[in-house]
């Protein structure tokens, strides 16, 4: 009995100690989460303040397709962003990531500020704030509401193979290894190429110039308007200047330097070009994409009742590409397998994938590019709509396929499996819940592209809304 009672006392003591330990840990955890005030400095917030808005960028980039003495591939460039001040402020914040900025004056400041009218305030201090990926410019005075200013930077960066920002892609053709400089700015990688206001609502006009190795060609969002051979820093280069873009978000900017070839056609006054490796073009692997693009563009012009807003529609197949495709305005980038079609070895499923992906990306030329989401918390609206109308566009190009029937198999059933997992997430979030770049990237999944839940959202919501609209119109 005594030993039994003593044993009970020991167990009671151990249980009590365990509860105390757990309570202490929970208490410390709660204290850490609640005892620290929110950041007070604006550069500690992930969202840009609403004091400045960009109007235009003048960007010149020079990607090196050969390694330097240290074996590194680099790019250099300079950028001038013109912005308008909405409210007086003594602080300028731009996004900047993994760039080495040159000093612009004897005080070691990383930027040069000029005013279109009058004299700008003196710069007090500049630095790169890595936690939130900002270039911070503190001023001794204030920039004035209603006035325009130019902010100039010069920089260099690594042309790495990480598939982000301006990056390097390599492939082998005829036994020769070739290097391509290409880009993926979406969703938050433009800041890795040049300092910018890297948020989707911060639209501006882009004036792009690219210096590149003689014998290569450069592509960007706008049509090439001037190509000249020149010498820069003692090196022979080709300088390509592009027409200004429409007003657009930074994530839609695109650049490619390569020795690719292309197929071309016209859709009304719009130039259609399919770019790929020379051998792929010679073997006709881009022909199907060219044949699909023309009727799909015409379909969306009728569907939206808005003419295609650009002078050209380039689509390019890349050897290394993270996403299946990206809707850069005027220069859509693809994985090779999603744009090229070889009738000798490709399957019918490959052909259907090429048609629907082309339709998906071209749908974004209006819904997403011409009209853009304010913030990334509503990605489903952009991608869900494009997923739905991609079947409509592909159906116009291939009317005998009954491709619209595949929406249930390819989207609804696919997302059922994903949405059943504990890792599923709400379709729409509050703006303040999506702040960091990694949170933004996580949203691009089957839920945002294809979900149909209790609220009938995503791709299936747009399908349901279209059906309801059709029925209401017929009833009226």
Automatic annotation (TrEMBL):
GO cellular component: cytoplasm; extracellular space; plasma membrane
Protein origin, superkingdom: Eukaryota
Domain Aminopeptidase N-like N-terminal: 53-252
Protein name: Aminopeptidase N
Transmembrane segments: 12-31
Residues of the active site: 361 (proton acceptor)
Topological type in the membrane: Single-pass type II membrane protein
The keyword Transcription is assigned to this record: no
Species the sequence originates in: Alosa alosa (allis shad)
Binding-site list for Zn(2+): 360, 364, 383
Protein family (similarity comment): Belongs to the peptidase M1 family.
UniProt keyword annotations, A-Z: Glycoprotein, Hydrolase, Membrane, Metal-binding, Metalloprotease, Protease, Signal-anchor, Transmembrane, Transmembrane helix, Zinc
GO biological process assignments: peptide catabolic process; proteolysis
Lineage per the UniProt record: Eukaryota, Metazoa, Chordata, Craniata, Vertebrata
Gene3D superfamilies: Neutral Protease Domain 2, tricorn interacting facor f3 domain
Residues covered by the Peptidase M1 membrane alanine aminopeptidase domain: 288-451
Entry keyword annotation includes Glycoprotein: yes
PANTHER family given in the database record: AMINOPEPTIDASE (PTHR11533:SF271), PROTEASE M1 ZINC METALLOPROTEASE (PTHR11533)
């Amino acid at each position: 009995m005594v030993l039994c009672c003593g044993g009970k006392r020991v167990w009671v003591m151990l249980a009590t100690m365990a509860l105390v330990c757990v309570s202490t840990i929970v208490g410390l955890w709660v204290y850490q989460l609640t005892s620290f005030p929110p950041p007070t400095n604006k550069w500690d917030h992930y969202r840009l303040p609403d004091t400045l808005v960009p109007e235009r960028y003048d960007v010149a980039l020079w990607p090196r397709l050969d390694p330097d003495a240290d074996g590194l591939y680099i790019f250099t460039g300079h950028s001038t962003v013109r912005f308008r001040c909405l409210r007086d402020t003594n602080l300028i914040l731009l996004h900047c990531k993994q760039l080495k900025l040159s000093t612009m004056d004897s005080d070691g400041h990383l930027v040069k500020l000029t005013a279109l009218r009058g004299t700008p305030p003196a710069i007090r201090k500049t630095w790169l704030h890595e936690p939130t990926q900002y270039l911070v410019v503190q001023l001794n005075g204030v920039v004035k509401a209603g006035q325009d200013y130019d902010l100039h930077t010069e920089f260099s960066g690594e042309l790495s193979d990480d598939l982000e920002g301006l990056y390097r892609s390599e492939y082998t053709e005829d036994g020769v290894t070739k290097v391509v400089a290409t880009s993926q700015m979406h969703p938050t990688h433009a800041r890795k190429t040049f300092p910018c206001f890297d948020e989707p609502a911060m639209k501006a006009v882009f004036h792009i110039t690219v210096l590149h190795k003689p014998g290569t060609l450069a592509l960007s969002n706008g049509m090439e308007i001037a190509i000249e051979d020149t010498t820069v820093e003692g090196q022979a280069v080709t300088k390509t200047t592009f027409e200004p873009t429409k007003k657009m978000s930074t994530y839609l900017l695109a650049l490619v330097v390569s020795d690719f070839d292309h197929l071309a056609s016209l859709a009304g006054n719009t130039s259609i070009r399919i770019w790929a490796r020379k051998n792929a073009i010679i073997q006709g692997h881009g022909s199907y994409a060219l044949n699909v693009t023309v009727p799909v563009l015409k379909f969306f012009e009728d569907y939206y009742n808005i003419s295609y807003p650009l002078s050209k529609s380039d689509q390019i197949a890349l050897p290394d590409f993270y996403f299946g495709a990206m809707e850069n305005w005027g220069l859509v980038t693809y994985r090779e397998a999603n744009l090229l079609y070889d009738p000798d070895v490709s399957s019918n499923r490959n052909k259907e994938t090429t048609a629907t992906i082309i339709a998906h990306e071209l749908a974004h030329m209006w819904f997403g590019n011409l009209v853009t989401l304010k913030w990334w918390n509503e990605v489903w609206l952009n991608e869900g709509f494009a997923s739905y109308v991609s079947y409509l566009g592909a159906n116009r190009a291939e009317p005998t396929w009954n491709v619209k029937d595949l929406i249930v198999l390819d989207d609804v059933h696919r997302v059922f499996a994903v949405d059943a997992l504990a890792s599923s997430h709400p379709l729409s979030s509050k703006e303040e819940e999506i702040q960091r770049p990694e949170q933004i990237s996580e949203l691009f999944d089957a839920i945002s592209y294809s979900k149909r839940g209790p609220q009938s959202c995503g791709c299936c919501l747009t399908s349901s809304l279209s059906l309801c609209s059709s029925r209401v119109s017929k009833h009226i």
